[in-house]
Every structure is written in C-alpha cells, then in structure tokens.
Specification:
mainly beta; SH3 type barrels; Fumarylacetoacetate hydrolase, domain 2
Length: 268
C-alpha cells in the first residue's frame, strides 16, 4: 500500500495512491495515471477507512508523507564507494547521527541554502519508517517493526560537516530532510535502485544491494541503546556521486517503487 499525505482545498488529508508507478526518465515521470483514494484519518496511528472520494494525483499538493514525532536517525558511510569518494574509511560498525524533525520538508518544497555554507550537497537515500516500538530488537525480527519506506535526500553542508567535526548543524538544518512522495508498506529492499539527478543530469546510480550494513543490522544496532518509536525515520546511506547544489537547481531522487522526490534549491 502506498500512503500519501497531501493538501487539497486547503485541508490536510491522507490517502492511498493507486495505479502503476510510471517509468522515470532523467528524473521526470508522468503521473497522470495515478489516483488517490482519500482516507478519513491518519492511518499511522488510528484505523483509517476510505471516504469513497478519489482524486487525481496531479490535483493535490503533496507534503512529507510523515513528520517524525520523535526523531530521524541518519546512517553515514553505508556505501563503500561513497566513503571512498570523500576520502573516508569504511566504518567497522554503523555510523549514526540525529536530525531534528524541523529539518523535514515534502515533495516540491524548496531546499533553502544557509548563508553560513559555501558547499551544500545532495544525498539520495532510502528511508525506513518505524511502525512499532523497537528496543533490543534482533536482526531476524527487525522487519516486524518496519511500517514502510520512502525516498529521502540527506542534504549536507559539506564544509560545515568538516569544520564542526560532528554533524548536527551540517545535516540537521531546516529543509535538510526532504521525504516523499509516499510511503510504500510492501517493498522488497534487498536490491533497490537509488538514483539522483540535478537539473536532469544523472548524478547517482546505486543499489541497496551494496549496503555495508543492511536494514535489519541497522535496526538491531540502533535499538541496542535507543528506543525506536512509531513514525521514527532511519536514513540508510547514500551511494557515490554526491556533489554540490546551488540556488536555481532542482534535485530529483528516484528509488524503485517509490516514485520521484523532487525539490527546487533556493537561497535561505
């Protein structure tokens, strides 16, 4: 099931996206065949029923499919090629960091570049949405605690990341966590393509098969010391090909089965 959050006629709503996910070319896709079956409530925390109303996908304004009520946890250097391109060693255990929920934006919302940074970078990533409380979870049971998946962009102030020596400001600034366009609750994640484009030029082309630490390993590792709550988001790392974005660019991120997450880039 593909769950979307959107605004229609100035009202926030939830719905189920129906129709075949169209082919994606240079970050563009034709969504005219998609529809949304409107739900009567938030399906993440309450039983939701269809209202019977159906809307064209293109007639609504999508927002982030979830706003984490607790936390976003990012995982750094989870692709060997990405670690290498930045001159870093592959970690021996998952490298994690926090991002606040104030960093979240949705499809079409602008990434705003803080004046303090001279080098801002995109990072296409698969995001995992936690569906059940997870504490001390073993890898073999990890997927029991997953609600679904969405596309994400772990936007990074690369120069600030280097100068601060830790990543709170560099990866947690406002608008640094685009999520969307929907959450897919049924998805095989062993070998999903992850691609990004800047202004239609392909920049990243990787696969989750190249994770250093797979999703069950990440959930086990994190839940050893941190309680993961429903609605929490885990960003699982980015493949090689990251680079600079500037005002006027558009970043498109596509993950198989999850459509396209597009965001313009603007000065703050």
């Amino acid at each position: 099931m593909r769950i979307a959050r959107f605004v229609h006629q100035d009202e926030p709503k939830y719905g189920v996206v129906e129709g075949e996910v169209p082919a994606i070319e240079n970050g563009d896709w034709d969504t005219t065949g998609l529809e949304i079956a409107v739900l009567d409530s938030d399906p993440f925390f309450t039983p939701a029923q269809s209202t019977g109303e159906r809307l064209k996908f293109d007639d609504v304004r999508l927002v982030s499919p979830i706003l984490p009520r607790s936390k976003i946890i990012g995982v750094g250097r989870n692709f060997a090629d990405h670690a290498a391109e930045l001159g870093n060693e592959v970690p021996v255990s998952p490298l994690s960091f926090f991002k606040p929920n104030t960093s979240v934006i949705g499809p079409g919302d602008p990434i705003r570049l803080p004046a303090i940074s001279e080098y801002v970078s995109y990072e296409a990533e698969l995001a995992v949405i936690i569906g059940r409380v997870a504490k001390g979870v073993k890898a073999e049971n990890a997927f029991d605690h997953v609600l679904g998946y969405t596309a994400s962009n772990d936007v990074t102030l690369r120069d600030i990341q280097r100068s601060d020596k830790q990543w709170t400001r560099a990866k947690g600034f406002d608008t640094s966590s685009p999520l969307g366009p929907w959450i897919e609750t049924s998805l095989e994640v062993d070998d999903l393509g992850i691609r990004s484009w800047v202004d239609g030029e392909l920049k990243q082309d990787g696969t989750t098969a190249d994770f250093i630490f797979d999703i069950p390993t990440l959930i086990e590792h994190l839940s050893e010391t941190i309680t993961l709550l429903p609605g929490d988001v885990i960003l699982t790392g980015t493949p090689a090909g990251v680079g600079q974005i500037v005002a006027g660019n558009r970043v498109d991120i596509a993950i198989e089965g999850l459509g396209v997450l597009s965001n313009p880039v603007m000065d703050a």
